[in-house]
C-alpha cells in the first residue's frame, strides 16, 4: 500500500519542527535582551532559608531584620549569620498541615510586609486572609481588613503605609482568585483587581483604582502625593494622585520591560521593581486574548507553563525607576539565572540591595553604591 502524500508532508514538517526546537529553540522562546542592562546579579551573596518563598522583606524601627514572609504562613526574622532565621509571627493558628514547600490555604500566605515605624507594628498582606497586623513582640497576627465596600478581599498582595495620614494602601489582585490561583488570575484576562485605601482611624476601606488586570506591587511616593500600582500583564505602572491639584485622578506612571512583582521606594524617592520575568514570545502570545491564556492553563501543567513563560531560562531582573518621571534609570540582571531567579522584591538599604523570591528558599544581598 503506497504511503500517502499527506503522511510524507506530516513527517517532513515534524522533522523540521524537531530540528528547529533542538538547534534554535532558545532563540525562539527565549526572553528579550535589554539594552544597557548590567549582568551583575550573578555576584550577589545568597542567604538560604529553611522554608521556600521569602516574597517580601522589611526591617523593624530598630533596624533589625530583615523579616520575610514565607510559604508556610510564617514571618521569619534574620538574626545574622550566627543565629540565622528565627520565627517571629504567623498568619493562622492552624499550623498542623503547614508545608515548607507548598502553600496550604488554612496556613495563609504572607506577601507584602510593611513596618509602621511609630508603633513597631508589622502590617502585611496575606494572599488568603486580607491585611494582617502583629505587634513588636510577634506571635499570632490579627486581621485588620478583609472586605471593601461590601465585597470580600480575595488576594491582598502588597501594601505601603502613609504614617502622616494614618492610612495604608494595598492591592487586591483579584476579586475571584486567591494566591493559589495566581497564574489563572494572571492569564484569565479579567480586570477585577483593585487598589484600596484604608483609614486606620475610621476603619473605612475605599477602592481608589479598579478594573486593574492583576495589580501586584504597590508603593507610595516619598511625599505621599501619589500611589503606584503595578499591573502585571500590561507591564504598566498606574499612578493614583492622593494629594494636590490632581487628587482623585489617575494616569500611567511608567511602562516596564517585563512582568512586575513588588515595588519599593528608596530613601531618595526613586523606586525599585522586581520583574518576575522579561517579555518572551510565549508570554506575549498567551496574553494576546483571555481565551488563549485559559487554554494554556487547562492544557499545560504548571511547571511547563512557568518554563515557557520564562522563555526556557528562569532569570532575574531589577529595574530602578525615577521617582519623579517614571523613567528607567537602571536595569540589573542575572540573565542566565546562574545565581538568582524568580525574584519578587528589591529593597535598597545602607548601600546594599536585598532581594526576595516568591518560589525559592533564598534571599540575596548585593553591594550597590
TrEMBL record:
Q: Which UniProt keywords apply?
A: Glycoprotein, Membrane, Transmembrane, Transmembrane helix, Vacuole
Annotated compartments: Vacuole
In this chain the Strictosidine synthase conserved region domain maps to 157-245
Classification via SUPFAM superfamilies: Calcium-dependent phosphotriesterase (SSF63829)
Name the residues that span the membrane.
7-29
Report the sequence similarity comment from the record: Belongs to the strictosidine synthase family.
**Organism in which the protein naturally occurs:** Brassica rapa subsp. trilocularis
Q: Which InterPro entries match?
A: 6-blade_b-propeller_TolB-like, Strictosidine_synth_cons-reg
Sorted alphabetically, which PANTHER family does this protein's record hold?
PROTEIN STRICTOSIDINE SYNTHASE-LIKE 1, STRICTOSIDINE SYNTHASE-RELATED
- Indicate what this protein is called per its UniProt record: Strictosidine synthase conserved region domain-containing protein
| Pfam families attached to this UniProt entry | Str_synth
Amino acid at each position: 500500500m503506497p504511503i500517502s502524500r499527506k503522511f510524507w508532508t506530516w513527517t517532513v514538517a515534524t522533522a523540521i519542527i524537531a530540528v528547529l526546537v533542538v538547534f534554535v529553540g532558545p532563540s525562539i522562546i527565549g526572553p528579550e535582551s535589554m539594552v544597557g542592562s548590567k549582568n551583575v546579579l550573578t555576584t550577589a551573596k545568597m542567604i538560604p532559608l529553611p522554608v521556600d518563598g521569602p516574597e517580601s522583606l522589611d526591617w523593624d524601627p530598630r533596624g533589625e531584620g530583615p523579616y520575610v514572609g514565607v510559604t508556610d504562613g510564617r514571618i521569619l526574622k534574620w538574626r545574622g549569620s550566627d543565629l540565622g532565621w528565627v520565627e517571629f509571627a504567623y498568619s493562622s493558628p492552624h499550623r498542623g498541615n503547614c508545608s515548607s514547600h507548598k502553600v496550604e490555604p488554612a496556613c495563609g500566605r504572607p506577601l507584602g510586609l510593611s513596618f509602621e515605624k511609630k508603633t513597631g507594628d508589622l502590617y502585611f498582606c496575606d494572599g488568603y486572609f486580607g491585611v494582617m497586623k502583629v505587634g513588636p513582640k510577634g506571635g499570632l497576627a490579627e486581621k485588620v481588613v478583609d472586605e471593601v465596600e461590601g465585597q470580600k478581599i480575595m488576594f491582598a498582595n502588597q501594601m505601603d503605609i502613609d504614617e502622616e495620614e494614618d492610612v495604608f494602601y494595598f492591592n487586591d489582585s483579584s476579586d475571584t482568585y486567591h494566591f493559589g490561583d495566581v497564574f489563572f488570575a494572571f492569564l484569565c484576562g479579567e480586570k477585577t483587581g483593585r487598589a484600596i485605601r484604608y483609614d486606620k482611624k475610621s476603619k473605612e476601606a475605599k477602592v481608589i483604582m479598579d478594573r486593574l488586570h492583576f495589580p501586584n506591587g504597590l508603593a507610595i511616593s516619598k511625599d505621599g502625593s501619589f500611589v503606584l500600582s503595578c499591573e502585571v500583564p500590561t507591564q504598566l505602572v498606574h499612578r493614583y494622585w492622593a494629594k494636590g491639584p490632581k487628587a482623585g485622578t489617575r494616569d500611567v506612571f511608567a511602562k516596564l520591560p517585563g512582568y512586575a512583582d513588588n515595588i519599593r521606594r528608596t530613601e531618595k524617592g526613586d523606586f525599585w521593581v522586581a520583574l518576575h520575568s522579561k517579555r518572551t514570545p510565549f508570554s506575549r502570545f498567551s496574553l494576546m486574548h483571555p481565551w488563549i491564556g485559559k487554554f494554556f492553563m487547562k492544557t499545560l501543567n504548571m511547571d511547563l507553563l512557568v518554563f515557557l513563560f520564562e522563555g526556557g531560562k528562569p532569570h532575574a531582573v531589577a529595574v530602578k525607576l525615577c521617582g519623579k518621571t517614571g523613567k528607567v534609570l537602571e536595569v540589573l540582571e542575572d540573565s542566565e539565572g546562574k545565581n538568582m531567579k524568580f525574584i519578587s522584591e528589591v529593597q535598597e538599604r545602607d548601600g546594599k540591595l536585598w532581594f526576595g523570591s516568591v518560589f525559592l528558599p533564598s534571599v540575596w544581598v548585593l553591594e550597590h553604591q
